[in-house]
Specification:
This protein has about 190 residues and is an alpha/beta fold. The chain has 8 helices and 7 strands; from the N terminus they run H-E-E-H-E-E-H-H-H-H-E-H-E-E-H.
């Protein structure tokens, strides 16, 4: 694994789904869909959209979970129900309470329509310090950074610029193939 460095496995920004910071959630979904279609022939599909400022610099990320959270209704009563879990209620009990409360919520098409118009900057996650990795970092160090932070991806930097995304799926594939190759060599070497 020490033979690889981050830039060998990263997805360049030019191949990643991006939208400007004034985009809507719906425009982000379309960008993600387009990137997945284009990228799917050779590797794992994208699971996030990067948000760019006016200078084309990455200022945030909108994951699939962020998309889905945008569809979740939010009001004081629902927030109180969600806090039941902290009081020792089971997930199932909380889910049943939420379900009962949501029976009187607006039709799902209204929710989709409203969410589609939301601005991505209101929903995106801003990268934290532990989510950046230099393009020349060894893969074993990047692997440690992914697992230590429980990250699904890291933003790859070249100096102060973000030049790509290192995805957990790509790291896993490289590690798996290296492990397979290593075991194959051991079993071939042991039989001669």
């Amino acid at each position: 694994m020490k033979n690889y460095c981050v830039k060998d496995l990263m997805v360049p920004i030019s191949e990643y789904a991006t939208v400007p910071d004034d985009a809507t959630l719906f425009e982000s979904v379309l960008a993600l869909e387009k990137a997945q279609e284009k990228f799917q022939q050779s590797r794992y599909s994208h699971r996030a959209v990067l948000i760019l400022d006016k200078n084309k610099r990455v200022i945030g990320k909108l994951s699939q979970m962020d998309f889905l959270r945008a569809l979740e209704p939010s009001d004081a009563n629902l927030d109180q129900i969600r806090k039941f879990k902290k009081l020792g209620f089971s997930r199932k009990a909380v889910a049943l309470q939420q379900e009962e409360y949501l029976k009187n919520s607006p039709p799902i098409l209204d929710v989709y329509s409203k969410a589609a118009k939301l601005n991505v900057t209101d929903l995106m996650q801003r990268p934290t310090e532990g989510e950046y990795v230099d393009e020349n970092t060894s893969l074993d160090m990047a692997l440690h950074q992914l697992t230590a932070g429980s990250n699904l991806s890291l933003l790859v930097t070249r100096g102060k610029d973000i030049v790509g995304v290192l995805r957990l799926a790509d790291v896993f594939a490289a590690v798996f193939h290296a492990m397979k190759e290593s075991e194959s060599q051991l079993s071939d070497g042991g039989s001669t």
